[in-house]
Structure formats: structure tokens, C-alpha cells
Design goal:
Elements: E1 3-9, E2 13-19, E3 26-33, H1 39-52, E4 55-62, H2 72-88, E5 92-96, H3 100-110, H4 115-138
Parallel strand pairs: 1-4, 4-5
Antiparallel strand pairs: 1-2, 2-3
Helix pairs in contact: 1-2, 3-4
Family: Belongs to the YqgF HJR family.
Main location: cytoplasm
Subcellular location: Cytoplasm
């Protein structure tokens, strides 16, 4: 089997999740801080994680507008995915991430996580949800 990495790419942070070796479950790894649009910096920060987990494929959340169109954030994610593939040679898959950050926020609120702590883990949680959605669909 192969490990898959899930990324929730924002303008300042990248939430990172990886799958188990069987490709069944997603676990949050960390939140990486970067300066958009410095793709070289992002790759430099992600490469050690890619190597540590022997990642073979990357799933990048694609934030679409609610009507399904792709706006500036979506275009930024597409550019990020292309730059990551070019730099690492890894295939990247873009998946619709509408509402994942809101789902992650609701989950953390219902778990009674403080606002300060939520801010620290929200991107990582969103990455877990993006990757888990992808793994669930790929397994069917």
C-alpha cells in the first residue's frame, strides 16, 4: 500500500495529515506556517514530512465557491498543487473541500476545545477531513 498526504492550504498555514499504510484512516500531523506564494518555502517545509512518512500521493483541498465555481483561493490551491508536483514528482489530486473547515470547527466546539486551542489545530483537522473524504471515496 501507499501513504497519502492531505493538505489544507491557506495563505499563511498548511494543515497536514497522512494516511495509515492501508489507506483507511487519516491522522493529523502538523500545521506548517508559510508565506504565500513562496512555493519553494512550502516544499522545503513539507519535504521532510513527505520523506518521513514515505508519501506516494498528495491530496490538496480545493476550496470551491458554494455554486461550484473556482475563485482566487481555488486558483491558489491549483497553483500550489502544480508547484508541489513539479518540485517533488509526486502526483497531486485536488478534492472539493467545501465546508471542511466549518465541519472541523463544529467538531472542536462540540468537543469543548477552547477558541485558542481550536485556532492552533483547525487547519490540521481540516486536512484530516479532506484526506479522510478522499480515502473513503477511493476505497469504494
Amino acid at each position: 500500500m501507499k501513504r497519502v498526504m492531505g493538505l489544507d492550504v491557506g495563505s499563511k498555514t498548511i494543515g497536514v495529515a497522512v494516511s495509515d499504510l492501508m489507506g483507511w484512516t487519516a491522522q493529523g500531523v502538523e500545521t506548517v506556517y508559510w508565506t504565500e506564494p513562496d512555493f519553494d518555502e512550502a516544499v522545503r517545509l513539507l519535504r521532510p514530512i513527505i520523506e518521513q512518512y514515505d508519501v506516494k500521493e498528495v491530496v490538496v483541498g480545493l476550496p470551491k465557491n458554494m455554486n461550484g465555481t473556482i475563485g482566487p483561493r481555488g486558483e491558489a490551491s491549483e497553483a500550489f498543487a502544480a508547484a508541489l508536483t513539479e518540485a517533488t514528482g509526486l502526483p497531486t489530486v485536488l478534492v472539493d473541500e467545501r465546508l471542511t473547515t466549518m465541519q472541523a470547527e463544529r467538531m472542536l466546539i462540540s468537543a469543548d476545545v477552547s477558541r485558542k486551542k481550536r485556532k492552533a489545530v483547525i487547519d490540521k483537522m481540516a486536512a484530516v477531513m479532506i484526506l479522510q473524504n478522499y480515502l473513503d471515496r477511493a476505497g469504494k
